[in-house]
Each structure stands twice: as structure tokens, then as C-alpha cells.
Amino acid sequence: MRLSRSIVCLPRRARGLRVATTVLSGLLCALLPWVGSAVRADDEAGLLEQRVKAFWDARVAADYAEEYRFLSPADRSKANEAKFVEQKEKRPYRWVNAKVSEVAISGDLAWAHVQYEYRMIDIPDTPPTRNAFWHVWQRLDQWHPIPKGTRAAFPSRPPHLRPAAAEAELAKRVGAFWRAQAAGDWETVYRYLEPGYRARVSLDAFIANRPPVAYSSAHIEWAEVLGARGRAKVAVGIRPQDPSLAKLGTKQLVKIDAWVKTDGQWYRRVKDKTDPQRAAENAARKWVSP
């Protein structure tokens, strides 16, 4: 009551100023956590960018011992420094320069856009070859680069460059495919396979050659769309159908599914050595991938 009396006794202008100050103070208090979060995100992005640049500086300088120190503890455990340096020095090319133009962070994953040039050692007089890609990093104890051999297990581009609606559509299609697998509905599974494969392999042949395993429900970790191509990371339970192997139980399988959009619909790609399109695509990959 004492506070309310003091406000009543204040002139109208002073009471208005008091109210405005109170409102402004409340707004500032509400905004402070958001501002602090934004500042921390900017700081994190800046630190990551510095680390990525230092990593690529080491590559360009052919300082492979320094490059080794950027690897995660798990990756360093696969090869000691001397072995790592030896393998790098045997490469038939050298990095000429590299530029980090952008970084994007989403949770414990990050992408750095790197424009790089390399030159083949045996033909030093030729102009360097230019290329660019999104280098994927992961935060563990600190930020570490994802090795080339395991990058396929992560989206190749940051979320802000990927079509969210198209990826949701693909994820829905992937989920339906794996539900049919878990139900043993092989006719439905067959209809999800890419048209080129179905033109070469009949339903009967597909069923006759499927592996003798059963699947449980699948969890789709992410889906990525790149034009008419798509990928999805799927974790699925798998167990042998042979009763004599029942003691093996269900194992967790994590795999990357490749999908293709044909005539407005997503279909699962099939590993098929007789596919001429797949062979042509593999032959076209001639640039050096970092």
C-alpha cells in the first residue's frame, strides 16, 4: 500500500516515466538471454573459423604433423603421427592454397565452405585445379574435422542451404519404405525401388535374391536432398531369419540410403553393377576430393 500511495502522489508525467522505465527494464531482462546466446554463437563461429583456417594452413604448408593434431582422439588412435605423415607424403598432389569463406553450426555439427586449389606433383608446370566443398566438422572435446572416409555419414551441406520441405517429403518416403521392410511386404518394397532397377529385375527375381534377414522398425536420423538426388541416414534393427542363428539376436545397423527423384516421386537406389548410369557417374568423378 505504501508503494501505491507514493505513485498516486507523483505528478502524472513522473508516473508515466516510472511505468515506461519499468516496462523497458522488463523488456531488457527478457532480451538479455537471447542477446547472450547470440553473442556466444558468434564467438563459437569465430573460434571454429580460426580453427578451420589453421587446419587448412597446415595442409597448404604440407605440415602434416600439425594437421594430425587437429584429428579427434578416436581418429588419432587409428594411426600414429609418423604413419599419418608418411601416408600424406605419398599423395600424388599438393594443396596450393585454400580459403574459408563461411562457417555454419548446427548443434555439434558444423560446415565450413572451403575453396581450394591443388596441383599434381608429377606435372608441376600445369595450372592448379580449383574446387570448393563444405568441410564437415564435429564438436567433441573441441571441433575436429570429419575424416574423408566417414563424411558420408553426415549431411554434406548446412541446414540453411537444404530444402526443408523436400527433405521432410523424402524422410516420409524413406520411413514408409522401411516399414514395408519390417513387415516383410516385399511387393511394396519392390515398388519403392528405382524404375531402372525394376526394368531390369522382376519382382520374383528380387524376392528370390533378397538376403535372409528380418528388419525391425527403423529410425531416420536425417534426410538430405540435392536436386533430384537424396540421402537418408537410417538406424534399423536386423536379425537372421534362420532359427539356428536366433541366439545372435537383433543387431543395430546404421546405413546411408541413396534415393533418386523420378517423375516427381522418390525411389530408393539399388546397388547394381549392371546399372550403366551408376558406372558412368563413377567414371565422371575425376577431381581430387579432400
Write the layout of secondary structure elements.
Elements: H1 2-9, H2 12-60, H3 64-68, H4 73-76, H5 81-89, E1 93-106, E2 109-120, E3 129-139, E4 143-145, H6 164-183, H7 186-192, H8 195-200, H9 203-208, E5 213-226, E6 229-240, E7 251-262, E8 265-268, H10 276-284
Antiparallel strand pairs: 1-2, 2-3, 3-4, 5-6, 6-7, 7-8
Helix pairs in contact: 6-7
Index terms:
Nuclear Transport Factor 2, Chain: A, alpha+beta, 4-stranded antiparallel beta sheet, 8 strands, globular, 2 domains, 290 residues, 42% helix, disordered N terminus
Using the CA coordinates, give the radius of gyration.
27 Å
Question: DSSP strand (E) fraction?
Answer: 25-35%
Distance between the termini: 72 Å
Q: Would you identify the CATH architecture of the largest domain? A: Roll
Helix content: 40-55%
The gross shape turns out to be globular
At the third CATH level, what is the topology name of the largest domain? Nuclear Transport Factor 2, Chain: A
User: Given the structure, what is the number of helices?
Assistant: 10
The CATH C-level name of the largest domain is Alpha Beta
Number of strands: 8
Name the average pLDDT.
Answer: 86
Q: Quaternary state, please? A: single chain
User: Strand order, biggest sheet?
Assistant: 1-2-3-4
- Helix-strand makeup class: alpha+beta
